[in-house]
């Protein structure tokens, strides 16, 4: 055994038979099966890779030592491992599936579990990590999926291509975009929460494309799980969305992605849940889900031998050595490295660029595997056409028509990006000019089809339109980390005119689902009603009250921070775009006035101590300030108040009879970017630098600001789409 392991560049720690481990698989598909509770390690001889076998169960899951099937021999591969290295395999042995769900229902954890149990991560440092698909730094910090990710694994001589998608409504464009790449979806639903707002959104898109979903009720091992009730709620949702008889006859599985098991039997799920909570953790596996994918998901369609190569670009990837790589699903034909290709513009079919394939990649686990050829049904990345964009068609020279693409829903809110023109500009950032900001936003719009950049090319500001505050805040956070300094306006809703009636205005509405304690439901209903929300449902879910509102998007802007305070951090709020409806009218003022700085300099504790009695401070002693900067919020309603936070105590040589009192200021919490975006008023802006988030008036000069307020144009007239 040791000699075989050395031949593969591996060695076994504690390799005696008493440990109950045996070698199973070929050199390219090496893994160990556990027969006892001992947990030795497989480690690479270089010492760089040490992968624990705790997650690899006693299964012949994906990479078996059995001889290759007849189909594998026909395709030129000697085993499943050969296909795993990027060989062209028959189309009938490919499965393309997307993982869709509401936020925090366990999609990414489920994909992690599949990759680890299949051996796709064996020999990689990712074996010890959680949420390996969330590779972006912001994704890891926030614990959410922002970008769609493609990976693959081998199981029973089949290649299963998996697309992990975001669950937050603001990134719904990623879900809409990947549906053209897959033949079915795995709908993951929390067995405690049940179907939520984003569940309805992603399911609507999947059913509209005729996809037959496979449903997984996740987290059934929780004490609060209610699988029978959630199954009934899901069936009602399918029927309400107009699903066909075949779509409502979905396969239902019960799982705990965190514990690593799945089953089609509810009684067995209860037994596994009890086992997972006890001493025998690790019982069960994900084989039922993999079997269901192979059984229920149809193989991809498309001719290979008698059709020209064509591929719809779904996503762009950056490569340090190859430049821009295009990711997509091959619609027809076979492509090989060195083949001549052309890029066709979406819609028109005009030839945008011609070139040849320089590299071809398949993603397996968290690694990219180089391929020599790929055919219809494969999800691959290729390089060689640097000007390609999302939704473009890459095809052979004989193809003249572009492939159809799925248009995403239009954006509903917008912000304006402009140069940071404050007196403190240029102290921290390196990317300062309007041309740099404009180029960066254009590059973002090329890869993110849910964003729109409106730029007349003349002014120094650019309007960016998106789905929600979170989506725009992630873009701003990414740019500040890259070294940009920006001035950003608060989000505004995009209105629409009725075509036959110019006086009628439509605005976007959202469906908002809220889970709160019963004692907090009253204040939530009161505040959302003031924001023109309409209560559609009030039900009990476990020990929480679930409220469902239909509310204008304007009513949600700035509400997140209020909701957190009203529910003491225990409430959960989710929302998704519903429709465009009639304008709901003006809202009541929801925020008090501001304290505006009237001088430049450094804030002093002496001045702040006198100002603090007027309201809440946003700055600390020693902070740099400038005229027009917002330094606090007044405790009473009224007009803005100008203050001088830089005033210092006058020193004299006359001895005072009493001692100075020690100054104790209330600690100030630094602004988070999302909080600042939700807080600012329309006449204010956010100054964003690599290390600071400051609030300011859009017009710094007080006299110009007063003149501008007299001739202010309404939001509807200014921002109608």
Automatic annotation (TrEMBL):
<dbReference type="InterPro" id="IPR035651">
    <property type="entry name" value="BipA_V"/>
</dbReference>
<feature type="region of interest" description="Disordered">
    <location>
        <begin position="701"/>
        <end position="721"/>
    </location>
</feature>
<dbReference type="GO" id="GO:0005525">
    <property type="term" value="F:GTP binding"/>
</dbReference>
<dbReference type="InterPro" id="IPR009000">
    <property type="entry name" value="Transl_B-barrel_sf"/>
</dbReference>
<dbReference type="GO" id="GO:0005829">
    <property type="term" value="C:cytosol"/>
</dbReference>
<dbReference type="Pfam" id="PF03144">
    <property type="entry name" value="GTP_EFTU_D2"/>
</dbReference>
<protein>
    <submittedName>
        <fullName>GTP-binding protein, TypA</fullName>
    </submittedName>
</protein>
<dbReference type="InterPro" id="IPR005225">
    <property type="entry name" value="Small_GTP-bd"/>
</dbReference>
<dbReference type="Pfam" id="PF00009">
    <property type="entry name" value="GTP_EFTU"/>
</dbReference>
<dbReference type="InterPro" id="IPR047042">
    <property type="entry name" value="BipA_II"/>
</dbReference>
<dbReference type="InterPro" id="IPR027417">
    <property type="entry name" value="P-loop_NTPase"/>
</dbReference>
<dbReference type="GO" id="GO:1990904">
    <property type="term" value="C:ribonucleoprotein complex"/>
</dbReference>
<dbReference type="InterPro" id="IPR000795">
    <property type="entry name" value="T_Tr_GTP-bd_dom"/>
</dbReference>
<feature type="domain" description="Tr-type G">
    <location>
        <begin position="92"/>
        <end position="301"/>
    </location>
</feature>
<dbReference type="InterPro" id="IPR000640">
    <property type="entry name" value="EFG_V-like"/>
</dbReference>
<dbReference type="Pfam" id="PF21018">
    <property type="entry name" value="BipA_C"/>
</dbReference>
<dbReference type="InterPro" id="IPR042116">
    <property type="entry name" value="TypA/BipA_C"/>
</dbReference>
<dbReference type="InterPro" id="IPR004161">
    <property type="entry name" value="EFTu-like_2"/>
</dbReference>
<dbReference type="InterPro" id="IPR047043">
    <property type="entry name" value="BipA_III"/>
</dbReference>
<dbReference type="InterPro" id="IPR048876">
    <property type="entry name" value="BipA_C"/>
</dbReference>
<dbReference type="InterPro" id="IPR035647">
    <property type="entry name" value="EFG_III/V"/>
</dbReference>
<dbReference type="InterPro" id="IPR031157">
    <property type="entry name" value="G_TR_CS"/>
</dbReference>
<dbReference type="InterPro" id="IPR047041">
    <property type="entry name" value="BipA_GTP-bd_dom"/>
</dbReference>
<dbReference type="InterPro" id="IPR006298">
    <property type="entry name" value="BipA"/>
</dbReference>
<dbReference type="GO" id="GO:0003924">
    <property type="term" value="F:GTPase activity"/>
</dbReference>
<dbReference type="Pfam" id="PF00679">
    <property type="entry name" value="EFG_C"/>
</dbReference>
